């Protein structure tokens, strides 16, 4: 979306199990501030603030001359401009996290107690675009969901998945053996097996795109064959632990691989 709109790359906030609402906007280094006061080298309070994804977006949405009180001395301001913010895997955070950022996200502001409760906000025309991902591991509060436009990303079809994998492989660092040119059928066969496991085998957790990328890279690293899916059964079975993420599913998947191989020959 950022590329489509001609914006800078997205500002990403990686949610953690310890995240609190303030973390989305900024971090205040209390310890450095304390040591500085003890040594009489204390700088301005704002110089101990490090802005995070949404905080950066709010800063960049304004003219520097209008928000001088919020800008640390070493901060490079390149606005005003709009930003795309990605809040990744919000369901990792404590339940209160979603509730605590309701007003701030809806009205695009943050109150900073360390700066005497000054409010940093974005002009409406420069509001950042916020994208929030969730693995649906837990239910998000209804009040939070009412403020969102929900979109479910379905698993890609075979052609789309092949395009994704090809693109990602170009970005991945490869060892010498892995960089060898592979059979043009390698990805097709790997994707065929993946869909077989997803659609015809009863696994507790179906492998997704992320697991497939690791699996593909693992096979490329451990096998010298042009098409390890077909020509290197040992590497194929050994690499399954990169694709399947539980022991019960692994036992089932290894048997299913053999069944898939037999069906290909009939």
Could you please describe the fold and organization of this structure?
Helix 7 (158-171) packs across helix 8 and helix 7 crosses helix 9 (209-222). The strands form three sheets. Strands 1-4-7 form a three-stranded parallel sheet, with helices on one face. It has 266 residues and is mainly alpha-helical. It starts with a helix and ends with a helix. The longest helix has 19 residues, at 247-265. The chain has two domains: 2-145, Rossmann fold (3-Layer(aba) Sandwich), CATH 3.40.50; 158-265. It contains 13 helices and seven strands.
Beta-sheet strand percentage? 5-15%
CATH topology of the largest domain: Rossmann fold
Q: Please compute the radius of gyration using only Cα atoms.
A: 24 Å
Number of helices: 13
As a percent range, the share of helical residues equals 40-55%
Poorly predicted tracts of residues: 175-179
* Strand order, sheet with most strands: 1-4-7
- Measured between the Cα atoms of the first and last residue, the distance is 45 Å
Question: H/E element string?
Answer: HEEHEHEHHEEEHHHHHHHH
Bulk shape? elongated
Biggest pleated-sheet summary: 3 strands, parallel
CATH class of the largest domain: Alpha Beta
């Amino acid at each position: 979306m950022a590329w489509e709109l001609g914006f800078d790359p997205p500002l990403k906030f990686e949610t953690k199990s310890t995240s609190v609402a303030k973390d989305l906007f900024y971090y205040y280094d209390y310890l450095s501030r304390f040591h500085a006061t003890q040594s009489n080298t204390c700088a301005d309070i704002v110089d101990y603030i490090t802005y995070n994804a949404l905080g950066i977006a709010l800063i960049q949405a304004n003219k520097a001359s209008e928000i001088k009180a919020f800008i640390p001395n070493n901060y490079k301001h390149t606005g005003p401009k709009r930003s795309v913010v990605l809040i990744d895997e919000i369901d990792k955070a404590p339940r209160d996290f979603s509730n605590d950022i309701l007003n701030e996200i809806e009205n695009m502001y943050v109150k900073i107690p360390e700066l005497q409760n000054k409010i940093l906000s974005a002009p409406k025309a420069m509001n950042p675009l916020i994208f929030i991902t969730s693995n649906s591991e837990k239910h998000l509060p209804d009040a939070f969901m009412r403020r969102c436009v929900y979109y479910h990303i379905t698993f890609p079809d075979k052609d789309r998945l092949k395009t994704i994998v090809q693109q990602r492989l170009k970005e991945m660092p490869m060892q010498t053996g892995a960089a060898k040119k592979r059979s043009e059928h390698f990805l097709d066969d790997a994707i065929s097996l993946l869909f077989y496991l997803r659609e015809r085998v009863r696994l507790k957790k179906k492998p997704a795109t992320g697991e497939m990328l690791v699996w593909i890279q693992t096979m490329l690293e451990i096998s010298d064959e042009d098409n390890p899916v077909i020509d290197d059964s040992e590497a194929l079975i050994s690499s399954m632990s990169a694709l399947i993420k539980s022991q019960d599913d692994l036992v089932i998947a290894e048997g299913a691989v053999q069944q898939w191989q037999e069906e290909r020959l009939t």
